[in-house]
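QA checklist item 7 of 12: single-chain prediction sanity check.
[x] sequence parsed
[x] length recorded as 647
[x] structure emitted
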Amino acid sequence: MIPAVLLPFDENLSIDEAAYRAHLRDVSSVEGVCAITTNAHASEVASCSFEEQRRVLGITVDEIGAHVPIVNGVYAENGLEATRIAKMAHEGGASALLVFPSGVYTFGQRPEMALDHCPGRSGRLPNQIQQSRARAVRAAADRLSAEFRLYAATRRERQGRGMNPKGGPRRWAEFDCATMESGGEWQRRPLALRRKNSSSRARIPMGKFHRECFTMTRKWNEQDRPEDFWYSGKVTRRRLVGWGAGVIGTAMLVPAPWRAAFGAAAKPYKIGSLQPLSGAGAAGGKTALVGAQMAVARINRSGGINGRPVELIVADDESKPDVGRRKAEKLAVDDNVDVACGGFLSNVCLACMPIWEEHKIVNMISVCLDTTITGSRCNKYTFRPFDCAPAQAVAFGPYLSKLGKKWHIAYADYSWGQSTRDAYAEAIKKHGGQVVGTTGIPLGTADMTPFLSKISGEFDGLFGIFFGSDGVTIGNQAFDIGLTKKYKWAGDGAIAESTNLPALGNKIEGFVGINRYVPVFEGALDTPYHRRFFDEAVKRLKAIDPSGPLPDRYVQSTYEAINCLKLGMEKSGFRGREDSLKLIDALEGLRMTAGDDFPTGDKVMRKEDHQAFPQEFIFEIKGGKHHIIATTPGEQTLFPPTCKLMA
């Protein structure tokens, strides 16, 4: 079932985003829904501007795109505008298109209408061409009619046995929409959805919507029409085949891009990706997912891996370790993924690592930075193709010693923040400095002033270790109470990610940080391949955030993590999970060369602990932008491995 969602408006006839998001969550939760259609008649597409349609798609993808494919309507009166909308939908993350006919279809929607539309023009064509065209159209109509009859007969036979069209017990979501009664009067009824495992109905007040949901006319209802919307799998694994309200010519649902390129029979590699699409890490998880989608799309455009396409199967860990473990188990057992690539919050990564190891699935970390992942808690199936806190500290330590000798460290009080605190405390001490105090602040603390107000005394600099919304919070509140004016202000680059800068404004001016990626074209980042990566990332990020944020390190590291897997799979001739040990051998010591796969530069995957060492960028925020102060090559950030891999 692929329902078309409604679009709520406020009193000023502007889009009511909060109500729309709630409606999306409600409809997508119904059992049997395998995709969602937006920017269709039900969502007032004819009354929405191009930018409003872009916004509606962006909200839809952001809210439910990780769980269900999105079908975007194309409503236009000419081919050029239809192409423009289709391109916007593709760039915005839609999985398929629902193409509506233009007003020229006023002669009806019979196949023969193409002959009736412009008789004057047809009269000027050679008679042989007219006859050939007529034969072709009528032959297509006959084939379609036969398919309808076969479908209808099969459907009636299955329903007669109490089964749905695909077999199995009948389970239908219920929609009580406005219907046209025999007397010709519209009868308004509430829309009702029956949830999975529930006998209750969730009712949506129709008054909140500008247009009601109507069924087809009796003439349409009397026709045998196909409704067999089917799919296989999760997220990008849905193949959508269906028909819209107007039968032929009205609906055109496009299957996943790789199916067109490789054919429906192609067996894809399945990459499972755990991301926090809700909860404390949601903002970063969504940009990380953009990086994964970018990499997979590029791989499939280039012919796949070993001639096979790649499918990305995404699960939301909700920023919770226990949920992450359950979702990882499901990816391993139910979805039978070949490899894993994901992980944002370190406590979730650490909780899931034993799952991947148990099922002998190679696990490519895409964001998590906790030191112990490739240290004391390492395992042979887990790899990290980017930096970690000790490497950052090796690169940043000398510069921090020039800024000041005495430091107070404020940090996110969970596994990543704690291990990063320890790494920097050691680096500061190594270079003749001193940590005079530390302050741990729980994740998601909206008001940090009770913690920050206790930071005082004689020291030179405040060092922060935060990310996401917590980075915005400490940046703003430390400025407001005068800490960043009194002390030098430095820290992990996640505080000043490009996606955080708009919310920080001028309060982050002068901040000095270190990061594996900053969105500038300076020094080692002024390359054609970085520009290509940057342009594609900006385009995709704008689709989910109209403000147009620049790419952050989460987009970058997830993009490069997928490409690292690709190289290893090609090198090892990887066929599936049975070749995990071959893939591990190929990844150990793997050299990643600067280029379109790795736009941030060269790096090597160290065999001893499965840890990579990219170059590090020390930057300062000036005028609301990153400016690189110094660059440290990856080979100069090495530290002794502490991992002891089991054979």
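[x] summary fact logged: Residues 17-160+209-237 form one domain.
[ ] second reviewer sign-off
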